[in-house]
Amino acid sequence: MTRILISSSANISDQLVEYFRAQIREDPDVASAVAAIRSLLKFLKRDQSETILGLRENMTKAIHRLEETDSSVAVSSGGELFLRFISLTSLEHPDLSQCKNVMIERGELFLKKISLSRGKVGKLCHTFIKDGAKILTHSSSRVVLKVLENAAADNKRFTVYVTESQPDSAGKLMAQKLCNLNIPVTVVLDAAVGYIMEKVDLVIVGAEGVVESGGVINKIGTYQMAVCSKAHNKPFYVVAESFKFVRLYPLNQQDVPDRFKYKADILKTVKDLNQEHPMIDYTPPSLITLLFTDLGVLTPSAVSDELIKLYL
Amino acid sequence: MADSDGRQVVSINHSTEEDVKLQEVVQAKCEGKELTKEEKQRLRKEKKQHKKNKKDDRGPPEKEKEKEKASVLAPSKPATQSPAHKAAPVPVNASASESPVAAEKPAKSKAEQRAERRARQDTERASKQGKKEGGQQSASSKPKATPNELQPVKRLPEHIQVDDPAALKKLAKKLERQQVPLRSDYGYKVSLFSHLHQYSRKNPPTQQISIPATVIHPSIVRLGLQYSQGIIAGSNARSVALLHAFKQVIQDYSTPPNEELSRDLVNKLSPYISFLSQCRPLSASMGNAIKYIKKEISNIPSQCKEEEAKRRLQECIDSYINEKIILASEAISKYAIEKISDGDVILVYGCSSLVNHILCEAFEKQRKFRVIVVDSRPRLEGREALRRLVKKGIRCTYVLISALSYILPEVSKVFLGAHALLANGYVMSRVGTSQIALVAKAYNVPVLVCCETYKFCERVQTDSFESNELDDPDDLIVTRNGKTHLENWQTVKSLGLLNLVYDVTPPDFVDLVITDLGMIPCTSVPVVLRVKNVDQ
């Protein structure tokens, strides 16, 4: 009997992962955190634990499982925020199923809110793009794409420079999408950021995670770009949804935990991480001018304020 | 009592009687016995009478000025004007204003005096209105006085107003009233810091207190001596010692008849606090602890019995120490240990009980790191830190602060303690801390400040001059090979010795603040203060 139960729980987590992967496959535009939260909600509906504590444990295990699949910061932060959000209510109902219904309701609400967050960010940020602006961006970010889409819809004329962003050449993908929107775009080498900085007016990048200090974790090469823009006195804007806020506080590049730096499958297979190239880097708050989030336009020091409000 | 002769006769009679009483009272003061309330009232009355006699000799214009001063103060303190309210500690201003008023109308009754005062205030208000519309300058200084009363009076703490003689006089009066000895400043003060006290360790204020001390509780006297001689140093140690002394005071306290514990105990504590601040200016942590105790005392319900109330207060103090200091340091170590990785070289400055605790805990948790202890004259507190760490078995290096830029390329992290965290994100700590933060920033070494939340204070400061502490200048004198060059520094008129105790570090140099609430950036201190105020 116990053996069957164990295998069914393993089954459930496999199904969870499958569902997650399916989400990303079907809708490549969805943020990985949103997909993760949708899967977690489905998991919650299917979960059959008898106690609240058991439920929370299962959820935590499910989040870990998802983190193993996709090691981005956003999945981890989104999962934790989801768990916090649904258990924020005082679950005083004596009946477990009632509690679960309340949690599911809150979960749906949370999902609805965050699905709209990208649109909110786009609306906030596009006003900062002036007519005739030259924008530099890094790698492929769906939020930045939304911002540029909104700006183009507003009949603004601007040109975009995108870095190639090796090793996965995500920049070329971004360039393709921008071409489809009829925005003039040029792909530059990662090494050409210093060269191109004097031509551009502003830099806009997305983020995989926003940390407590107000700094961001993003695709490798972002830190370089931030240092260059500081040296040239160009504004460096970051666009991120609020579910990307995470309770980390790295002091420098080394302090970012390994589980975020490398892809999930590499973490599992490779022994010596020193031979691997990290996929992300940390940009300290002193180099960032403003952060555009669905909670509003924030300075890096205000991020901690928002985090305290969310978490405390 | 209506005719002037009669008045004179009465006053003469009064003065002889009062002289006798005054002598008694002065005698009692010399013996160090605590004056009873009646004696205190009598003393006040006598002083006023003396002042009145003196002022009778002066001319009318002086009286006019006094009257204006009285009328200026009258709107702000109408309740305390009536002599019947002498029971509450009357602010010195009120007593000063009361005497000229009394000098003018001794014969009229109190009610008539009050009515007259009100009429005067009304006319003043009318004249103020007229002045506003007309914009004319009238001859008397009354209009000059009235705009002052429109602005809220900003009160600076007295310990940073030493170069203002009026503030000093006020302080002296207050201390005399509380029967706390006034400590005199020592030596030539550097002009930038002339607004701060500078005391010598050789004459502590405890010498001016008789034995056995009856006005100030003996445990407070002991505490004051320990503070002024530097036996207890470090903000946590000082706060804990203060709270323990207050526990003793509460234990020995007995409510006088017809008094409420919640109000009387707070009044009893005020002279103790004045005495302690004469021994050594209060730290921010001590200030917060005192605020907490006063709040707890005033929240005691009146129907609570004395034993019960005392027990409750003792418990409050114990739980404050436990939560805010001991448990907080556990929480901070937990967070801080996450930031210490194997192979780290950690730099610490001076002796902070919290940082030492963190390092000892991390060492017990098998982290591999080594420590560089930076020290500075004249306190040489780093030696104590070195002693504690080496006893644990941690590998340490010891340098003086002048070797800082030499040693920093080796360092991976800097851990600093704090005396207080100000509301604009500045860190107030032992002098030398901001230097370390500055040089660490230049070398891109992360600076972590560890501070409990009870040290957060609402003050705002952007420089180290405004509110600081000057230690004994003789500490800077050093004897080497039997020769003391600075022995007679007081005779050299152009020489000043400056021994600063604190400095402030701007938040740009601090990367992370570890508190018991978690890891926050330096700019989020006002957020924490706001959250804390909401909680309370």
UniProtKB/TrEMBL annotation, chain A:
Function: Acts as a component of the translation initiation factor 2B (eIF2B) complex, which catalyzes the exchange of GDP for GTP on eukaryotic initiation factor 2 (eIF2) gamma subunit. Its guanine nucleotide exchange factor activity is repressed when bound to eIF2 complex phosphorylated on the alpha subunit, thereby limiting the amount of methionyl-initiator methionine tRNA available to the ribosome and consequently global translation is repressed.
Protein name listed in UniProt: Translation initiation factor eIF2B subunit alpha
Provenance organism: Sinocyclocheilus anshuiensis
Annotated signal sequence range: none
Quaternary state and interactors: Component of the translation initiation factor 2B (eIF2B) complex which is a heterodecamer of two sets of five different subunits: alpha, beta, gamma, delta and epsilon. Subunits alpha, beta and delta comprise a regulatory subcomplex and subunits epsilon and gamma comprise a catalytic subcomplex. Within the complex, the hexameric regulatory complex resides at the center, with the two heterodimeric catalytic subcomplexes bound on opposite sides.
Compartments where found: Cytoplasm, Cytosol
One family name in Pfam for this protein: IF-2B
Domain of life from the UniProt record: Eukaryota
GO CC, one annotated term: cytosol
Family label: Belongs to the eIF-2B alpha/beta/delta subunits family.
Keyword set, alphabetical order: Cytoplasm, Initiation factor, Protein biosynthesis
GN (gene name): eif2b1
Molecular function (Gene Ontology), one example: guanyl-nucleotide exchange factor activity
This protein's record includes keyword Nuclease: no
UniProt xrefs under InterPro entries: eIF2B_alpha/beta/delta, elF-2B_alpha_N, IF-2B-related, IF_2B-like_C, NagB/RpiA_transferase-like
